[in-house]
Fold each of these.
Amino acid sequence: KACEIVLKRRDADTMCGFVRNIGREGETGTVLTLSELRDTQVDMFTTVCIGNSQTKEIAGKLVTPRGYQY
């Protein structure tokens, strides 16, 4: 439901990411678009980040520039 709300104001290709089991055995991270995130199951062990218009995927990581060169 949260993705549907965000999709009213953000493009479907907005970069997003999530990490499951942060700091625990089996930690995994995934970078995907907002439209892909909408169809993804997450649980209470998952942290989700939704990027802004400047967010990009660089070397498999979600990066939002803050005025520095990349």
Amino acid sequence: MKELRLCRGCPGSGKTRLAKKMMDEEGAVVFNNDDLLTDNGVYKWDEDRALLAHWINQRLVANAMRQGVPLIVLDNTNLWPYH
């Protein structure tokens, strides 16, 4: 069985902690836009880079699905219905 789980919620609501728990306990592969905005462990917000990170993550998730990854977790706010 293959599964895609979307973590959805406001910043600071525990999405990343839950995603890491799923990774540790269930072997989930986790994708997070913030990971793509971090340089040497320091988060750096930049609107242009954020849009690029969103696009890259969409492609990474699609590739993981095509490769048959059994459990994928998308750890982002996912607050807008079109995301």
Amino acid sequence: LGDGCRRSLDYGGLGMVRTRWGAGYTLTELLMVVAIVGIISSIFPALFTQITRFFRQNQARAYIQRDARTVFDLMGRNLRQSQASTVVIDAAASQPPYSRITFTRQDGKSIRYYQSGTKLRQEVDGGGAKQIAENLRYIAFSHPRSDDDNLIAVTLTLEKATYNQQT
């Protein structure tokens, strides 16, 4: 056995000779494993963060779109039933300009939509206000530049927190 690393074994005179290398791993193999584990462990947290951010952004987008569709459907239905001469657009105290609309429907019910902080509220016939959307950043009602007073423009901005204080 000249090099000391290999041995020849004869199994009971059957004529089969096998060569066996020393047991264990070489230093090169260990360094490769450590390098691969290091690379994977440095990439995984960033990948996990990106996946979490992507999931939360898509979830917020779906939530906001659902709220916006609900708001526009409800407002549109009620505004189509309103009497144009009863529409009043103003602002509640400490709220953005043109953030409140009040009108009377053809059935005689008075409807009011207004912003209260980050909530959009609906009030029917002066009764209790119910929240119809949250995460409201801005709403504005206006008459677009037209000779038709029956047109009302509604601007709505919703936002929701997603990840690391981002909206």
Amino acid sequence: GINMVKRRPDLFCAYVGTGQVSDLPRGIGMDYTRLLEQAQAANDTETLRALTTIGAPPFANMQQVAVFFQSIGKYQSASDNIAMQAMQRSLTSPPPDYSLRDVFYQSQGFTRIPTWRLYNEMLNTKLAALGPDIGVPVFIFQGSEDPVTPAALAEEYFQKLNAPRKEMVLLKGGGHFAVWSMADRFREELVLRVRPLAKRL
């Protein structure tokens, strides 16, 4: 999204970020340390063994990435638990207008993407390297308990941006998937802060 809005600001009224990526190598390193601490505090020998086996990031293969994100899932916020349950329900109880073909392609998408190449690109993202200038208003609605893209790093990136207008809203108790688990609050922020900018559409 940041890449698109920087290249073609004329196509956008605003940029809205959530679960905002900023410096993923730093974020993943912070997550790994936090997970070790949480597993130690919980005397969770299984997770400790898994994390020490894959070692600290950067990860060398998809299997290590999978172990890391499984560990995140084990210690994710209550907000993200709600979001993941909703995602699972969408797979087992698709919308009424879905055909069997739609259900098949949806499940295929979850099993094939992201690829290892895409994960490498994602996990090495450092948005500050693209420069601070964005030609449209910027809004970031960030879960305060986001374990994947920590709010502290999103705030750090946000503070460095130059935009015609910028606002960051911390969604208290929200995790990485706050857009789903806190959908009503998210919608309120969109209507209040972003919708007025799109009146010409």
